[in-house]
Amino acid sequence: KRLAILASGSGSNAEKIMEHFQSSDKAKIALVASNKADAFVLERAKKFEVPTITFTRKEMDAGDLLEKLKAEKIDWVILAGFLLKIPVELTRAFPDKMVNIHPALLPKYGGKGMYGSFVHEAVKAAGDTETGITIHLVNENYDEGRIVFQASVPLSESDTPDSIAEKVHALEHAHFPEVIEGLM
Ligand code: GRF
C-alpha cells in the first residue's frame, strides 16, 4: 500500500509513522504533503528520504492535490495534524481510506475550532479527569467518521494545557503507527 501523509505543522506524528513503516512490507510512505511551505514536517520527511510537496488551499480546492495523489497511486491518506478542511471530492476519492487523529476523546471536543491547543484548553477549563486520542476514518462531516481506536490518559488538577498536550502527544506517538498498520 502507498500512503500519503498530510500535515500542516511540526510533524512529530508523521515522523513516528515514517519511522514505523521504514522497514514494513505492508505499506510505504510515498509522499508527505503540506499546505505550509515552512512546516517542520517537510524537514522530517527529508531525513527519511520521503518525497514532499506543498500546496495552497486554493490549489487543494481546485483539485491539484487529488490529482497528485492519483498520479502517485496513493491508496491511503493519513492526516497527521492537517489543519485545512478537506474538500468533499478528496474524501470521496478515498472512501474509508482516509484516517485522522484527533487529540481528544471524540465526540467530546470535536468540530469546528477544536484543534491543537484549543482542545487542551477546553479540556482543562472543563476540569475533566481524563482525556485521550481518537483515530477515525474521515467522511464528509468533520470529525464524524467511524472511530477505529481510542486511548485515554488520566488528568490531575495540576495538569495545564501544556502538560495535557504532552500526555496526548505521547499517546499519539505510541499508538498511531500501529493503528494505521492494523488498517492495511
Ligand atoms: C496532534 O496532536 C494531532 O492530534 C493534531 O495535531 C497535532 C499534530 O502534532 N490534530 P504533530 O505535528 O504530529 O507534532
Automatic annotation (TrEMBL):
Top enzyme class: transferase
Site, Raises pKa of active site His: residue positions: 143
Pathway: Purine metabolism; IMP biosynthesis via de novo pathway; N(2)-formyl-N(1)-(5-phospho-D-ribosyl)glycinamide from N(1)-(5-phospho-D-ribosyl)glycinamide (10-formyl THF route): step 1/1
Catalytic residues, chain numbering: 102
Gene3D superfamilies registered for this protein in UniProt: Formyl transferase, N-terminal domain (3.40.50.170)
Protein's GO biological process: 'de novo' IMP biosynthetic process
Residue positions binding N(1)-(5-phospho-beta-D-ribosyl)glycinamide: 11-13
Listed Pfam families: Formyl_trans_N
GO cellular component, one term: cytosol
PROSITE patterns, per the entry: GART (PS00373)
Domain named Formyl transferase N-terminal: residues: 1-180
Positions that bind (6R)-10-formyltetrahydrofolate: 57, 100
EC number, as in UniProt: 2.1.2.2
GO molecular function list: phosphoribosylglycinamide formyltransferase activity
Keywords: Purine biosynthesis, Transferase
Catalysed reaction equations from the record: N(1)-(5-phospho-beta-D-ribosyl)glycinamide + (6R)-10-formyltetrahydrofolate = N(2)-formyl-N(1)-(5-phospho-beta-D-ribosyl)glycinamide + (6S)-5,6,7,8-tetrahydrofolate + H(+)
Similarity annotation: Belongs to the GART family.
Function comment: Catalyzes the transfer of a formyl group from 10-formyltetrahydrofolate to 5-phospho-ribosyl-glycinamide (GAR), producing 5-phospho-ribosyl-N-formylglycinamide (FGAR) and tetrahydrofolate.
UniProt cross-references to HAMAP family, sorted A to Z: PurN
NCBIfam families: PurN
PANTHER family: PHOSPHORIBOSYLGLYCINAMIDE FORMYLTRANSFERASE
Protein name per the record: Phosphoribosylglycinamide formyltransferase
Record gene name: purN
